[in-house]
Amino acid sequence: MFVMTIIMFVIIFANKIKYLTNNGLAEIALMNSFFRLNLPKSRIMGFIMGCPFCDIDSDRVHLESKHFKVFRDGYPVSPGHTLIAPKRHVESLFDLNDAEKKDFWSVIELASTELNSIMSPDGYNLGINDGVDAGRTVHHLHMHLIPRYKGDQKDPRGGVRWIFPDKAKYWT
């Protein structure tokens, strides 16, 4: 089984561009079936595209649900900075199915409850960079759950509005 898996991935990488077409996805499905790997197409696509969240080290995942995994950000902007990502490889919040959408909010609540008990933050910023032009750099949907603490910024007003500094101070 292991050897067949290696052979399949060598073939896929040798023809990486070809397999990103619709016909290629059909060929992946056939190979998946032939080798009896039973891997979901989304996981195969995540592997092909080199997605860091599709095969994240299980040691980093500290909470999970049926559809999501929760882990600390590798480049935190505050203590406890957490990411919530679907197990299925999707790029956009708008690509989630109904069951995933419902589970998403439950997992956010679960993650914030955990952070409240171990970090005691004074607030949170929640953010999704949905699209390259919105700042997405990892092409797998993930929400940033960023704990905020009194005094972590001189003036935290405006929060996420600071992505456009000239429009952030709407109160002045």
Tell me what you see in this structure.
- This protein is α+β, with helices and mostly antiparallel strands and 172 residues long.
- The chain has two domains: 2-48; 61-152, 2-Layer Sandwich (HIT family, subunit A), CATH 3.30.428.10.
- 35% of the residues lie in helices and 15% in strands.
- The chain contains five helices and five strands.
- It has helices at 2-14, 22-34, 41-48, 98-119, 165-168, and strands spanning 61-64, 68-72, 82-86, 123-127, 143-148.
- It has a five-stranded antiparallel β-sheet with strand order 1-2-3-5-4, with helices on one face.
- Strand 1 (61-64) and strand 2 (68-72) form a beta hairpin.
- The longest helix has 22 residues, at 98-119.
- The chain is globular.
- Mean pLDDT is 82; it is low at 14-27.
Briefly summarize what is shown.
The protein has 172 residues and is of the alpha+beta class. 35% of the residues lie in helices and 15% in strands.
